[in-house]
Amino acid sequence: MKLKFFLLFILLVVFFLCDIILGSVSLPFGDVWTVLTGHSHDPIYREIILDHRLPKAITAILTGAALSVAGVLMQTMFHNPLAGPDVLGVTSGAGLGVALLTMGATFLPTWMLGGSAHVVAAVIGAAMILFLVIIASIKVSNTVSLLIIGIMFGYFTGAIVSVLQSVSDPETLKLFINWTFGSLSEVGWTQLNILVPVTVVGIVMAMLMQKQLNALLLGKNYAVGLGISVRRLRLLIIIVTAILAGTSTAFTGPISFIGITMPHAARGIFHTSNHRIVFPASVLCGASVLLICDCLSQVSLTHGLLPINAVTALFGAPIICWIIIKKQ
Amino acid sequence: MLRKKSFFIALLLVLLCACSGKRNGQYESVKGSVESLQYAKGFSIVHASKYTVVTVFNPWVKGKIYDRYYLVKDKKTITPSDGQKIIVPLTKVMVNSTTHIGFLEALNEIDKITGVCNANYIYNPVVAENAKRGRIKDLGEAFNLNIEKLLMLHPQAVFTTAYNAEDENSRKMRRSGIPIIYNIEWQEPTLLGRAEWIKFMAAFFCKEKQAEDVFRKVVSQYNKIKTLARNAKTAPTIMSGQDFRGTWSLPGGNSYTGQLFNDAHTSYLFSSDTTRTTVASNVEEVLIKFHNADIWIGTDMHSTHELDAANPKYKLFKAFRNHRVYNANKRSNAAGGNDYWESGVVRPDLLLSDMLKIAHPELMPQYQLTYMEQLK
To answer: I need a surface site. Which of A12, A22, A281, B253 has the fewest CB within 10 A?
Structure first.
């Protein structure tokens, strides 16, 4: 087991380096190295590597880890292998926030629509939906009902977004569509100041819950028998998921499939559902896969970049099919 | 719960502070000879003794300045700190809107373009060809620039539309010393105001004289045609656009197209509407209000047959039955570039000529349509 963890870690380091070395512009390895070690003073190389690729790679690790852990939490809570961080509607809530900002708020000046305003809107949207989900979780004790309510929130927000899209002009529509593509490069060092602590706190909180989660995995009654307050645990799971998924979505836009598939990859590699193993393994898998996806998104088919959300889906969809077929 | 809430509030505050950054700086008033602008409201040019100051006003917040540039010929000239120093004439620039290409073409400066966005949507044959051959770099989608390629290309400046203003990419450009020049001509309320931004572009290439000449001719021609239009005895009714999956965008009364309708002496049902952009409508409303319109412009089709195949309801329009339907695709290429959005921005006189020729062909018997085309 230790060997597997070690190998996963090495892979993570390798992919991290790959993500820094490879980009849409090919830079000689030697130059990358001199910049990384602080011996280069070329402002352009420094900007590309230190201020573009490095924060992007760190964001990939954080987002990959956060979404995977959120995925584990949701799958355990709902006893459903296809649950992911977005089933609670937090991602759709963030989308609604951004949609309202870009397309609904015609009274807002356009200069407000770029950059960090997206993040604020996404956080407000996600927090709103989260608030509703928490109220629902207090009122509804049945987990499946809660899952349905979460999905309904998603549909509801999606419908509002569609209405907004139908009345928007092409430019603002494009601005929104672009957000739905997801982007790791929107995160610079300033944003990392928030993203790093929040993600770390979220993951640590999840790991602290591992014993209760293991009990929950064996069934609600078993957990109650062990003296665990399932209601309280559920609330905690929802909050941690929202912190992890909400924050990463706010900064990077929606990134699908990582959250659903990586917990399965982790369980598959270690042949266990024990959260003590699954959490760190999901962190490593999620971070590595998102790094690979980011490398792939730099491959220009046209002259631009592939949307990261599309690359993760290209990766994720076959994995989901595989899970379903294997379960037959 | 409470902890969670306060976390979000804290996060919000941090972010709100972070995003309200840049444009709160104080701008000093500039002394020098002010270049007189006839129509444009969005910028000013002041010639001081050691430099030229170009100021872009914030079109969304009245009375505020959006950005300021100090144009110097000598690198060593010291400029105030409330704007970006730009050494002119620029010789290597990236433009992220096709409208900028229109301006540069009119100034004979398209050879200074080293990077573009969405090369497929460029009409200008020289730029399109060079982009195809790789002599001009295509940096991808304007909303999602390939920032690494842009940094490596390292143009002396990037002309941008300010649509996605202060994003992480623009901070990266600034840090590596690529100034961003905001070309907000698309926020000008009038067509001639928009065309006058040629003077804005010209300042960065030291082509003020040429810009002055081009613009003077455009204004005189525009006004001549406008006067000519007043001789028309009738005002034909007009409509624009087509149904796109249930939505039909009509030009607002104050939009550029709305102004052309007015100046070409046509009768447009929404002419008293004050919208500067488009009015979202649907096929039902348009049918009821415009089925008797004499002229129909702004379709995307090439023939009435195509139009009919797209939606049989189009047959109900009088303009369709009388074959008075037009598109703006006369100067467009197969890839999707259309000169209507490029040189059309600089030549409102030609836009008006087209409109007048369509509305009152008897007033311009010799003129051949430039951008618009009658559906076959």
So the answer is: A22
